[in-house]
Design goal:
mainly beta, 411 residues, 30 strands, 4-stranded antiparallel β-sheet, Methylamine Dehydrogenase, Chain H
């Protein structure tokens, strides 16, 4: 989706400078403390960016943080965490150019969770931008990364690697010409890429427009794409699909405009869709995501509505089990991460007000157990992570200053 915003680079400008490649970024000093469980609603907004001088005497503020970094996935690979993200250099430094194009590449870092630090390496580098990056690992240890790619047009493309990041099917192979805003999830040895196609100017967030249609496509273990799956096509303005996988199927989730409804569709391994359903309404655009909780056999869809945060539980048949509202609001493009053991599920997510919300989830209910403070503020380009134990989690947060590690303890 971000490519539709690139005109803003010419109109508004960004900080000039050349990208620095592959620096060593040590983990910052992070801390957590328990805070009040009741958090007042704060609606998500973009913090204004500092002005930069593109020409003498001309200040041009740039207010879309996704020009710095956009899209992140954390995968457990053996005893390490593989972090994959898109960034305009490391640390990110957007540079104005005559074509007003973004220039993100896709990076990765292997992180020892006991001594976490980020050492970026380049995974994909082509002209124009490859963002937002989304990656998943299948049951055979193969990793699919897909992103919206501005090289030679605007398309949703992908690459397939083994667990050592040796190419199985080299990037880029085509998922959908004209596709954008894609996300990936793996079930068994297959992947599902959920993506949008088409664009309508005007409306949406900051009047920047919306996607038209939502699709999906299964990619097999060798990187062969199957037929396109029409999830929400020619049904108005639908876009920004996210996806999670169970051991039976996938749940694709997307938003519609202008009614601000959040929708879901169950997709079977054969590509059929047995059910489509409404999850909730009054959704804050882009402020939602989905994960799967194996021991509960439930999908957890979370996000922010006009009246606050929510978590919806959906079973693998596509039935809406419950919707818990009145939770702290979350941050755009963040993930709900979970510690899921023998039916006892603890989950957390970043809060718009700062810190994290900690939840206890059962088959039929969601309860807010505490909030914890964390150092730094969450930004709106992407946050992911994982539990290291029932009491500790690592979060990886994109920011204008670069990828940030947040250690959460006392859960």
């Amino acid at each position: 989706m971000a490519r539709f915003l690139i005109l803003m680079l010419t109109l508004l400008g960004v900080v000039a400078g050349s990208a620095q490649q592959e620096p060593h970024i040590p983990m910052g000093q992070q801390h957590t403390n328990e805070a009040n469980a009741s958090v007042p609603p704060i609606f998500p907004t973009f913090a204004p960016a500092a002005s930069s001088t593109l020409e003498p005497g001309v200040n041009a503020p740039f207010n879309d943080p996704r020009a710095w970094q956009h899209g992140i996935s954390c995968l457990k690979v053996g005893r390490q965490v593989l972090v994959v993200w898109s960034s305009w250099g490391n640390p990110p430094q957007p540079v104005p150019n005559p074509e007003a194009n973004w220039e993100h590449d896709v990076y990765y870092a292997r992180v020892d969770p006991q001594k976490p630090e980020i050492v970026p390496h380049t995974l994909v580098s082509l002209p124009e931008a490859q963002e937002p990056a989304s990656a998943a690992i299948n049951s055979r240890g193969r990793i699919l990364m897909s992103c919206e790619d501005g090289a030679d047009g605007l398309d949703q493309r992908a690459g397939l690697w083994d667990a050592e990041l040796r190419p199985i099917k080299s990037y880029p192979f085509m998922i959908r010409e004209g596709g954008h805003s894609g996300h990936v999830a793996a079930m068994d040895d297959k992947f599902l890429v959920a993506y949008s196609e088409g664009w309508t100017d005007g409306g949406g967030v900051d009047n920047l427009g919306t996607g038209n249609d939502v699709w999906a496509r299964i990619v097999d273990n060798d990187g062969k794409p199957g037929p396109e799956i029409p999830t929400a096509v020619q049904q108005g303005r639908n876009w920004w699909p996210v996806v999670a996988a169970s051991d039976r199927n996938w749940l694709e989730v997307w938003q519609s405009y202008p009614d601000a409804i959040l929708h879901g569709a169950i997709i079977r391994p054969d590509g059929s869709i047995p059910t489509r359903f409404q999850i909730t309404d009054d959704i804050r655009f882009y402020v939602y995501n989905v994960t799967y909780l194996p021991s509960l056999h439930r999908y957890a869809v979370f996000g922010t509505r006009a009246d606050g945060g929510f978590v919806a539980l959906v079973d693998t048949d596509g039935s809406l089990v419950s919707v818990r509202t009145g939770l702290p609001e979350t941050v755009r493009e963040s993930h709900l991460i979970a510690e899921d053991t023998d039916g006892k599920v603890t989950a957390l997510y970043p809060m718009q007000a700062g810190g994290v919300a900690v939840l206890h989830i059962t088959h039929h209910s969601v309860a807010l157990t505490k909030t914890l403070s964390t150092s730094g503020e969450w930004e709106t380009m992407g946050t992911d992570g994982l539990f290291l134990s029932p009491q500790r989690a690592l979060l990886f947060a994109l920011s204008k200053s670069g990828l940030r590690i947040v250690n959460v303890e006392g859960i």
